[in-house]
Specification:
Blueprint: H1 2-30, H2 35-54, H3 59-62, H4 65-84, H5 90-113, H6 122-137, H7 141-144
Length: 159
């Protein structure tokens, strides 16, 4: 069971890494849920589910992945919900949701890939959170402009 979970975990992670930024970019551009967001959501769901399966096999060495896993899925779920109901400050939900799950994904990769550098987890967190919050405070006009339709065209003549 552990080997199957590990294979699925790695494959889903390989899909999730490039689809995180695509999900953010396409969702913000379209002003709604996109295929990239769906792919990213399901890739993260598989990564999280398989992580929950694998952690008990080495509880003392991997227990801290449970909170990272749960947070990762909650973030992607939050981003998905924000993408499904754009309006108001919806873009902040997309940025923090999809972006937060992508940061958690890279945090886990850094922890596993650089075990002799325990501070390595801080790099994706500091860089990612700084970028996300900057975009939340300085959004692109098209993310907040209500005259831009869900598909990116302007609705001229409508108030």
């Amino acid at each position: 069971m552990r080997d199957i979970a590990l294979i699925l975990h790695v494959l889903a992670g390989v899909v999730a890494v490039p689809f995180g930024p695509l999900a953010v970019a396409f969702t913000l551009r379209r002003r709604g849920l996109t295929w990239a967001g769906e792919v990213y959501h399901w890739a993260i769901a598989v990564v999280c589910l398989t992580a929950l399966v694998m952690v008990p096999y080495d509880w003392s060495g991997l227990w801290y992945f449970w909170p990272i896993t749960i947070a990762s899925y909650l973030f992607v779920y939050f981003g998905q919900r924000a993408a499904e109901t754009p309006g108001g400050l919806w873009y902040r939900g997309v940025l923090r949701g999809y972006g937060g799950s992508w940061i958690a994904l890279w945090t886990a990769i850094a922890i596993v890939g650089l075990p002799s550098y325990p501070w390595a987890w801080a790099i994706p967190v500091i860089v990612g959170l700084t970028a996300i919050e900057w975009f939340c405070v300085h959004p692109a006009l098209r993310w907040t402009d209500r005259s831009v339709s869900k598909h990116g065209s302007t609705d001229l003549g409508q108030g």
